[in-house]
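Students often ask what a 'structure token' actually looks like in practice. Rather than answer in the abstract, let us consider Ribose ABC transporter, permease protein, a protein of 326 residues. Its sequence is given first.
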Amino acid sequence: MSEETTLRQLRVPARLRGVDPAVAIAFGCIILLLLAGSIYSRNFLSLDYLLQQLKVASFLGVIATGMMAVILLGQIDLSVPWVVTTGAMMACAATAYGTTGSVMAIPFGIFCGCMIGLVNGLSVAYLRIPSMIVTLATNAVAQGLMVVYTGGFSPQDSASPTMRFLAAGYTVPGLPNGVLVWFLIGLLAVFMLTRTTFGRSLYSVGNRERAAYMSGIDTRRVTLLAFIMSGGLSALGGVLLAGYASKASQSMGDSYLLPSIAAVVLGGTHVLGGKGSYLGTVAGVILITLLQSILSVMQIEEAGRQLIYGAVIIGMLLLYGRQRPA
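Now compare that with the structural description of the same chain:
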């Protein structure tokens, strides 16, 4: 153990030594945002406002969960915008086929997202095409297919009652179902990352793919499954968004690409893979959502928001991007 490490342990209380600094900073920023918002308006600390923000955050949280799996590999998924839109449009389209269509709407929307993820995964894992290139290409293809499907007009199909209930209904009084869905997916993600071979393989491949391969891990299969997971969860996010708005719309996923990446990075997941925790992603999602809310309340235009998102990501990359993966 180095002298520097020993001194650092002596300075940090024993209870805090296991806390990821990035996660602690993210939660600290959340508290600062709430305090800053409460100065602007007292409603920022009300229970109704916080539940509303959690409801909005749940859509981003579901999408960011899939993005985290890909970033843990040291890859990126830029097809999120139109995978979200495709999942929403196809789920709404299924409702036009009667009772059976309504029952199959959600599985069909997720299935379409998984298929796009499958194409991404096969291209990255087996054809060795850079993820940045292939996911951009599949995003463009998905956009083209949806434009052909709608003829360039706004989709006319509505969300099924189940989609609306899942996104905006209440099973537990006072707690939106969208938050429950995010909570359940979060539990599964934590279990997967900490208790399964696949979860541990994500970290191993992200740390050093060749070493993971030499140790017996099927790195191609892990990469393929991570992209399918990202596609499926992005589509589920689209289904929830369509349920929340009662219908799908063109480009409804465009505003989720940068926030989903930012939420994962802000939560401490290393952009080169191999390091990160789901608690950090949760903190990043809440932080981004609160930041969006405050910027909206302050009536900052979309261009200004994008500039702030970009500046925040660059700042966090300067803090964490140069660290070596664990």
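One point worth highlighting: Residues 62-253 form one domain. Ask yourself how you might have guessed this from the sequence alone, and why that guess would often be unreliable.
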